[in-house]
Amino acid sequence: MLYFGPETIMPLASAAAAAVGAVLMFWRRAVALVRSAFRSLRGLCGSRRSREGPGAPRADAAEEGTPPPRL
C-alpha cells in the first residue's frame, strides 16, 4: 500500500492552490486568450467566410436578398 505523508502532499497541494489562484485572478484574460486562439485556428481551416472576415456577405444571402447574420 502507498502512503503519502503530509511532507509529500503539502507541496503538491500548495502548487495546485497557486495554479488555481492564478487562473482565478486572470480568468477573463485566460478566456479571451483561449477564444482568440480558437478563432485563429478556425481561420486557418481555409473557409472563404473566415478569410473575408465576419462582416462579409454569404453567397446564399446575396442571392436571397437578405442581409448576413450578425455574429
Count of alpha and pi helical runs: 4
Identify the overall geometry.
rod-shaped
Strand content range? under 5%
Helix content: 55-70%
Structural features, described:
This protein has 71 residues and is mostly helical. Helices cover 68% and strands 0% of the residues. It is built from four helices and no strands. It has helices at residues 6-25, 27-43, 48-52, 59-64. The radius of gyration is 23 Å and the shape is rod-shaped. The chain starts with 5 loop residues before the first helix and ends in a 7-residue tail after the last helix. The relative contact order is 0.06.
Structure at a glance:
68% of the residues lie in helices and 0% in strands. The protein is mostly helical and 71 residues long. The mean pLDDT is 80.
Q: Secondary structure elements and their pairing?
A:
Elements: H1 6-25, H2 27-43, H3 48-52, H4 59-64
Provide the descriptors you would attach to this structure in a database record:
68% helix; mainly alpha; 71 residues; rod-shaped
